[in-house]
Structures are given as C-alpha cells and as structure tokens.
Amino acid sequence: MSFLHLSLCSAFTMSSLGLAFHRTHLVSALLCLESMMLSMYIALSTWAIESQTPSSSLTPILMLTFSACEAGTGLAMLVASTRTHGSDHLQNLNLLQC
C-alpha cells in the first residue's frame, strides 16, 4: 500500500470516527462529512489517473457535484435549526417534535 492510499484511508477512518464519537454540534458533524467526501474525491481522482480510462474520469466530477449539493443542504439545515432551536446542538434536535 502506498503512502497516498494509506493517508487517504486514515483520513476517511479518522473522519468517520469523528462523526461517530463527537456528535455534539451539527457543524462538527458536517465538517466530518465534508472531510469524508474530500478523501473519497481525492481517492477517486487518483484512481482515475492511475487507470487511464476515459469512462472513469467522469466519476470524480460527479462525486464533487454530489458533495457540493450535500454541503449546501447541510448548511441550509444548520441555518434552519439555529433559527428555530437557538443552537446547533444535536441533542436539541428531535424529529418527533416537528
């Protein structure tokens, strides 16, 4: 395993562990999700460069598009929850009270 693959796997693992264990604020959860998407984007980009097939070069762009949509949706949810609940603590958010 090369150093690049090891660092990408460790970045993905650390961000997923951060998402699992440090879920106090919605901002920290969104940052962990964005770091997961960033490591997946870099991994897909290096895979497309290494394989040198024209069909795999579109995959990182599609992943980046979905990541931008996810970030926009997450920020909209952050603003909406901060306006309605007064903070971004995940303990204050309850889907059954909607």
TrEMBL record:
The chain crosses the membrane at residues 28-49, 61-80. The keyword Cell membrane does not apply. Its EC number is 7.1.1.2. One of its GO terms (molecular function) is oxidoreductase activity, acting on NAD(P)H. One of its GO terms (cellular component) is NADH dehydrogenase complex. It is found in: Mitochondrion inner membrane; Mitochondrion membrane. It is an enzyme of class 7 (translocase). Belongs to the complex I subunit 4L family. This is NADH-ubiquinone oxidoreductase chain 4L. It comes from Rhynchopsitta terrisi.
